[in-house]
Design goal:
Layout lengths: L2 E11 L4 H11 L2 E12 L9 E3 L4 H11 L3 E6 L5 H14 E9 L4 E2 L2 E2 L5 H12 L3 E2 L3 H8 L9 H14 L3 E4 L8 E8 L2 E8 L8 H14 L4 H19 L15 H9 L1
Parallel strand pairs: 1-2, 1-4, 4-5, 5-8, 8-9
Antiparallel strand pairs: 2-3, 6-7, 9-10, 10-11
Length: about 280
Amino acid sequence: MTRILTIQDISCVGQCSLTVALPIISACGVETAILPSAVLSTHTAGFSGYTFRDLTDDMPSINQHWSKEGITFDAIYTGYLGSTKQIDYVLDIMNTTLKTGGKKIVDPAMADNGSLYPGFDQTFVESMKKLCACADIILPNITEASLLTGLEYKEVYDEAYIQSLLEELKNLGCKNIVLTGVSYEPSTTGVIVCDENGIQYYKHKKFEKGCHGTGDVYASSFVGAYLEGKSMFEAATIAANYCVECIENTQGDKDHWYGVKFEPVLYKLVQAIHN
């Protein structure tokens, strides 16, 4: 049975990061180990007065214990990491616990809509470049891709701009890329997959209003499908379709503003992977 380690924060309430990664990847059929980089009472979008406990200093001792026990992983998938120090620890963990031939999958969760998340700066971007360069697959959005490459961020763009982002990511050392949120027209968006098969684009429905945590839902769904034997493009397509299902399942529920109701439609993701 395939075993993956996912490293990111956990918001006790709020459907993002580890609270979606663990159930989604497990449901896909992959044994899922976790390493929380921080624990928050809720996520930070829309809640106030949340608690936060930084677990950075625990990461090396956890890694040492795993090494002592001979625990290894077939893949390591990273999401939101809170500091350059955490990125350094992640690189150590990859070097010591990943099996030979194991996959490194990085979601460089650090920015959106043209701006870095609060608390991040160019120093963090430089550290994230190192992590992405050693990864087998990265899953950036367009903002993150522009920061990683140093190219200007554009809200309106053409295929030539997307091609330039992909080329510069390749120059950085990124082997395989899933670029999310690529929209050439107002009513649709999609994902670009750049791998050994070339460049492929999957277009799907675009919603006027987004939902918090869908990036984490997408990345986790992609990882689950990919580790269950789907090609990168198949996994990217399955994950995109599942995110659309999750958003549609949440539309109109004013009480559920803090994330997507992914659980009731999780069976559709499992069916897409295994049927």
